[in-house]
Structures are given as C-alpha cells and as structure tokens.
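Data deposition worksheet. Section B asks for the primary sequence of the deposited chain exactly as it was used as input, without tags or linkers unless they were present during the calculation. Section C holds the resulting structure in token form. Section D is free text for depositor observations; keep each observation to a single sentence. Incomplete worksheets are returned to the depositor.
Section A, Depositor: J.P.
Section B:
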Amino acid sequence: MKVAHTQSTSNGITLTDIVRKRVELKQKITLQKEKITNTSTELFAPLSSFSSGKSYMNYFKNSINILNGAILGYKLMTKFRKFFHKKG
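Section C:
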C-alpha cells in the first residue's frame, strides 16, 4: 500500500481523519495513564488510621486468614499426594 501525501476520498479515509484519530487515541492513553497512577497511589498509600484498635483487629484477622489458607493448602496438597501416589 502506497501512502500519498494528498488527501484521498476514494476509500473514505483522509489524512485529517487519521490525524484526528491519532489525537483522540493519545488523549485516551493519557487518561488511562492518569487512572493507572491514581489507582497505584491508592493501593500503595499508607493506612491513615492504623493506630486505632479497629485497624489492628483487621490486620490480625487478615493475618489469621492468610495462615488458615496456608494450612488448608498444605493439608490439601498432602491429601492429593497420598491419593495420586497410591501403590497397590
């Protein structure tokens, strides 16, 4: 496909259409970058009221849930190993 520097109306796409689409896409990309940076700052921002007792309790509950998940995973792994490695 040969690119001409003149505007072409035979296929309905002109150079101005391409330029306008490019500008629109650049604007969308900058909006997405802003959304990504805002989300990342919200995710990695320090907790504002971590010194309260309620925050400590939530931290403790999350820690216990992670520990319970690890224990459950270990138990499931050992049961599956026993099930698949039966010799008979």
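Section D:
The CA atoms of residues 33 and 39 lie 10 Å apart.
The chain has a mean pLDDT of 82.
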